[in-house]
TrEMBL record:
Catalytic activity, EC: 1.3.1.48
Keyword annotations of the record: Cytoplasm, Lipid metabolism, NADP, Oxidoreductase
GO molecular function: 15-oxoprostaglandin 13-reductase [NAD(P)+] activity
Compartments, record wording: Cytoplasm
UniProt xrefs under CDD domains: PTGR2
Name assigned to this protein: Prostaglandin reductase 2
Record keyword NADP present: yes
Subunit and interaction comment: Monomer.
Family the UniProt entry places it in: Belongs to the NADP-dependent oxidoreductase L4BD family.
């Protein structure tokens, strides 16, 4: 059986920006018969995420993520439907998801690598399992719960960088639901700023490409910053840290401004920023959601409940077609998305 798939065509180089041409679409054949334990799936939606940038290098720099190989099929978050099954717990018509879904139209996968999902949790919006009711949602929720030290009624101010992205757009809302009294987002366009405030409940938003971020931050965070959800690293984070209060907390989620640079993760801080952390007793802890797998089930149920109650607003940017995976990846890495970047593969 013929399928289409996307493979890694070339590497951008450790310091290079990814381009659509790093990816290549080709045809492949699937075996006609399934082995015991296998299922044939049709891909419905695929995800592109910032962490994938490191998988384009020969060495990802971390032990828990393996690099993609040249001319081999790429994988990542995906959701699809079972078309045929030789697995006892999966039947035709079941919806399933995986973090290692191949970028192809159909695939034969080991049933044990798939997780069955309930469409009712997302009111039928299956792509949400790749975003708000999936890994980005869990990253935001568990990061805030475990590293944010938010307590209701203590008048805390939360700042989120990369605030219009998959994690950031959720982190601000979750911070509010957990008890922050003021939530401020930092992002890169006026349109994104407007959506954060008018749709997603942020109190204020700063466009870092306009004006002076430090000045703007002082205006919108008059009492300083108590919790900082850091999606970007770099200059923006240094600016925020300088305005953080005594005993405050940095939640280190991602460092997208550093992903195309050959530096260790998380990158070392400037000495003056290290000094601010030390003198003000600010915690800055790397948060790896995969270390909290025991909390995934309860986390997904909490996110689904908030979504169904209208307390968690979900934004997506959807591109159609497997042939556009490279375009979607490049766009996501340069801030072209609002909310989660999703690729719709089939109905």
């Amino acid at each position: 059986m013929h399928v289409h798939r996307v493979v890694l065509n070339s590497r951008p180089g450790k310091n290079g920006n990814p381009v659509a041409e790093n990816f290549r679409m080709e045809e492949a054949n699937l075996p006609d018969k399934l082995n015991v334990g296998q299922v044939k799936v049709r891909t419905l939606y695929l995800s592109v995420d910032p962490y994938m940038r490191s998988r384009m290098n020969e060495d990802t720099g971390v032990d828990y993520i393996k690099p993609w190989q040249l001319s081999e099929v790429i994988d990542g978050g995906g959701v699809g439907i079972v078309e045929e099954s030789q697995h006892t717990n999966l039947a035709k018509g079941d919806f399933v998801t995986s973090f290692n879904w191949p970028w192809q139209t159909k695939a034969i996968l080991e049933g044990n690598t798939l997780e069955k999902v309930d469409p009712q949790l997302v009111d039928g919006h299956l792509s949400y399992f790749l975003g708000a009711i999936g890994m980005p949602g869990l990253t935001s929720l568990l990061g805030i719960k475990e590293k944010g030290h938010i307590s209701v009624g203590s008048n805390q101010t939360l700042v989120v960088s990369g605030a219009a992205g998959a994690c950031g757009s959720l982190a601000g809302q979750i911070g509010r639901l957990e008890g922050c009294s003021r939530v401020v987002g930092i992002c890169g366009t006026d349109e994104k700023c407007s959506i954060l405030v008018s749709e997603l409940g942020f109190d204020a938003a700063i466009n870092y490409k306009k004006g002076n971020v430090a000045e703007e931050l002082r205006k919108v965070c008059p009492s300083g910053v108590d919790v900082y959800f850091d999606n970007v690293g770099g200059d923006i984070s240094n600016t925020v840290i300088h305005q953080m209060n005594q005993n405050s907390h940095v939640i280190l989620c991602g460092q997208i401004s550093q992903y195309n640079k050959d530096v260790p993760y998380p990158p070392p801080l400037l000495p003056e920023v290290e000094s601010v952390l030390k003198t003000r007793n600010i915690t800055r802890e790397r948060f790896l959601v995969l270390n909290s797998m025991d909390k995934f089930e309860s986390g997904i149920l909490q996110l689904s409940q908030w979504f169904k109650e209208g307390k968690l607003k979900i934004r997506e940017t959807v591109i159609n077609g497997l042939e556009n995976m490279g375009v979607a990846f490049q766009s996501m890495m340069t801030g072209g998305n609002i909310g989660k970047q999703i690729i719709h593969i089939s109905e």
